[in-house]
Amino acid sequence: MVSVAELNAHMQVPIANWDPSTAWERFTGFRNLTVDQFCEIQEQLLVEQIRTIGGSRLGARLLRMTKPANVEDFRDSIPLTTYADYTKYLDPSAREDLPSFEYMWAHTTGAQARYKYVPYTRRAYTRMLDNLMGAFLLSTAREPGDVRIGPGSSIMYNVPPRPYLSGFAAFGMERRFGLKGVLEPAAAENMEFKTKIRTNFETAMERKVDLIISMTSVLVSAGEQFSESLSRKKTKAKSSKNKKARSWRSKLRLLSAVAKAALRGRKPRAGDVWDTKGIIGWGVDTPVFRDRVEGHWGMSPREIYACTEGGVMGVQGRDADGMVFNPYMNFVEFLPASEAAKMEKNPNYQCKTHLMNEVVPGGTYEVAISSFYGMPFVRYRLGHQIRFLPKSQSSNASGLPEFEFLGRSDDRLDIAGFTRIDEKTMWQAVEGTGLQIGSWTARTESRDGKPVLHLYAEANDTVSQSDAEDKLHSALRVEDDFYRDLEDMLGIRPLEITLLPLGTWDKYYDSRLKQGLQLHDLVPPRMNSSENDVSDLVNLAHQSEPVAS
Asked: Has residue 31 got a pLDDT over 60?
């Protein structure tokens, strides 16, 4: 077990000497900890953090002018917090109130597209990079100890740029570990997001790709395009223009992909184009699309659990069903779902949280974190829902509990107070229909005083509304017991679907881009979209395409 003193000594940017023989234990060894060892590390780092932040204005306020000596004192005396408790302090103009000098500011979006600013200390940023390296190693290894990533490896980052944390991570991984982007981070910095993804794949035709990090839905779409093109055209370009533009390297790569597939007696696929060592998917849909990604790329995407406030907090191993928490990033507590619901109804209610040695296999929890390394958050409710896997489903039954990410607590669809459907459940149900449904957004509405779960979705002309509603209703009954009870016990069938032509989301994206909006405002929210969002989608869907002159 790495001690806190050893951990602090390792925090150097960049790493002077990369040693593959020790890298595996250094960056992934936490997965072999017992639950008791995990909790011991957590307490050591928490006590150190309390000493660090106690003298600052923000820290003293959050700690109630006390300095708890251990975990139990901390949990008993310090209340849970939300972002509203930090708003006036998390601003570059208020830096003198922060616990430690900030190295950089990252931001994410909150409700109504308001940015949440998060200051990172140097130590926290370095720890985040080290945790990410652990994810890289785990996602590419064929067996424990198989280090296949290191200085000079080529990474495709289909992620948002700075000031999003993912953008800072791309720069940091190059500086700390010598990992090269398929697109240099600086070159991709000012690219529109869709352009960045397309350019990444185009550039990758000229070079190796050791690891891909991407929205999982993008991997599915790109995989379908590559696989169809390779099978249909057999390395022929779609047009003479594209054919002329291709270099001999790209032509050779495509020919090699077709030949590789032929030798194995199957159709060529996207994974034949590159000898990629691993894939990391981000998004709630990653488990839903896992099989489809593997079909196109020849390997299953691994997950990471990360957010701006908490950094890279959890990773999934090569053969693991779920993720495990890294003890070195934040002190983690878990609010049982029933207790979190009580706090929603009564903000003054303080529930008893669970620690890692108290969680129940199969239980659903909301995550709360307390930062390490001078970061500002104390018992901060992230608003994320997770479920710890039953021991029968976990590949690590004797070690750290594995978990899956379900989505944001405030993204759940509340139907008459009877059930609250999370984003992962909706993804599973949509995929469970077997229909060719494209982009979608879901919200709750009301018709004549009755609750409605309304899905707005892209689909081609072969999908009928009645068939889609019947199949999605059946899929939701399978995925959510309370949804099934709505019909069986109360006679309520709340589902309604509005089908929109393929390309509607592209129109929405382009219209928002022309308005100069930021990345997270360019597409409607997946869950709980606003009335304006769906109105814009419907209006754009019925707009005629301009006639070409």
From this structure: yes
Dihedral pair phi/psi, residue 289, rounded to 5°: -95, 5
Q: Is 167 left (phi over 0), alpha (psi -120 to 50) or beta?
A: alpha
Residues with Cβ within 8 Å of residue 482, at least 6 apart in sequence: 418, 419
Distance CA 108, CA 249 (A): 39
Q: Is the bond leading into 336 cis (omega within 30 degrees of zero)? A: no
CA–CA separation, 308 and 22 (whole Å): 29
Amino acid at 246: R
SS3 415: strand
Q: What is the pLDDT of residue 242?
A: 46
Please report where in the chains the tokens 């018709």 appear, as a residue: 447
**Could you tell me where the beta strands, DSSP code E, fall in 416-526?**
419-421, 437-447, 450-459, 495-500
C-alpha angle 202-458-294 in degrees, rounded to nearest 5? 50
Rounded CA-CA distance 324/312 in Å is 11
Q: Which residues are bridge partners to 407 per DSSP?
A: 385
Confidence of residue 457 (pLDDT cuts 50, 70, 90): very high
Contacts of 193 (CB under 8 A, 6+ apart): 160, 519, 522
The token pair at 491 is 């006679």
Centre a 10 Å sphere on the Cβ of residue 172 and count the other Cβ atoms it contains.
22
Average pLDDT, the chain: 89
Classify strands 278-282 and 302-307 as parallel, antiparallel or unpaired: parallel
Chain CA centroid to CA 223, Å:
20
Is the bond preceding residue 287 a cis peptide, omega within 30 degrees?
no
Centre a 10 Å sphere on the Cβ of residue 289 and count the other Cβ atoms it contains.
23
Pairing between strand 278-282 and 211-215? parallel
**Quick one: how many helices (H) and strands (E) in the chain?**
19, 18
At 302, give phi and psi (nearest 5°): -95, 155
**Domains, the chain, with CATH or none:** 20-114+323-409 (no CATH), 150-276 (no CATH), 412-541 (3.30.300)
Q: What number is the average pLDDT over the span 303-313?
A: 96
Contact 334, 355 (CB under 8 A): yes
Tokens of 5: 């003193």
Read off the DSSP letter of residue 81. Answer: B
pLDDT in tens, 81-117: 999 999 889 988 878 899 998 899 998 765 444 678 8
Structure tokens at 2: 């790495």
pTM confidence score = 0.87
Residue of 474, 361, 497 lying closest to 428 (CA atoms) = 474
Burial class of 107 by CB neighbour count within 10 A (0 to 12, 13 to 18, 19+)? middle
CB-neighbour burial class of residue 547 (10 A; exposed 0-12, middle 13-18, buried 19+): exposed
| Closest C-alpha to 407, from 378, 440, 365, 370 | 365
Give the pLDDT band of residue 238 (cuts 50, 70, 90).
very low
